[in-house]
Amino acid sequence: xxxxxxxxxxxxxxxxxxxxxxxxxxxxxxxxxxxxxxxxxxxxxxxxxxxxxxxxxxxxxxxxxxxxxxxxxxxxxxxxxxxxxxxxxxxxxxxxxxxxxxxxxxxxxxxxxxxxxxxxxxxxxxxxxxxxxxxxxxxxxxxxxxxxxxxxxxxxxxxxxxxxxxxxxxxxxxxxxxxxxxxxxxxxxxxxxxxxxxxxxxxxxxxxxxxxxxxxxxxxxxxxxxxxxxxxxxxxxxxxxxxxxxxxxxxxxxxxxxxxxxxxxxxxxxxxxxxxxxxxxxxxxxxxxxxxxxxxxxxxxxxxxxxxxxxxxxxxxxxxxxxxxxxxx
Length: 329
Prior knowledge:
This protein has two domains: 16-153, PAS domain (Beta-Lactamase); 168-323, no CATH class. The protein has eight helices and 14 strands. The protein has helices spanning 16-45, 49-60, 174-178, 189-192, 194-207, 238-241, 266-277, 311-323, and strands at residues 68-73, 82-84, 87-89, 112-114, 118-119, 126-135, 141-150, 168-170, 210-216, 221-226, 229-236, 285-291, 296-301, 306-310. The protein has a seven-stranded antiparallel β-sheet with strand order 8-14-13-12-9-10-11.
């Protein structure tokens, strides 16, 4: 199997919220015109069940990703059957949809709304609904056309979201934080054999194709991911981590030229993890990870506080920054 090299496309939105907003804008732009035309056709048939079914069946041909189309009156009572690509579904005729999340959002003045995603009642799947106001020739609101979508069926509207690489702090379990002063670090088997463990991990990451590794200091194990087989992680127990022959089970690989972390910085990162493990008997590192491609360090401390930050910022901050204890929780 050939090593997988991460692909980086053009710059994407800088936050997850921006990425979601970008996707929603693209979807809304795809749906506005076909739903406006569906609403016009329904206004001419309103409120005939048969007429609405016919108008919506025709409209559905322009919405291949739509799961159901239906018409509602101004009280959110369904006036049509559910129109699907497999035919009419009569069971929802007369259904009261007023309590559904998409009927409790304010429809903008232009008459079109793309709801927030929600979990569907029947299939328990992430879904969203587009709502279009139906008006008569005098501009009076007759009701709504609703279009339900399963998120799996929607077309891809944007590129893969790139996780930001800025420092992020995440607070953990309050119960653990509250009891932190009642605990003391106990030497684990990894602590007692730390020089050998770090030597093995450095070899695996610099010369044996491991691109992501996490040391679980307290439970004396490590999890690793390899470029040759990135969809499966390996679990190394303390016997494997204290036996340098373990490295022979993984073929030599050239250090990736796409890695964000320079090869000669792997050992300084590992040495800093070691320093944080032993920095205090109350506040200490329980687990630390390094991903050489995105260049991120993951830290989890005894108070259950977690931090994610770039490798170079991690080394610049150094031991003294973390030993102050001000940012651990």
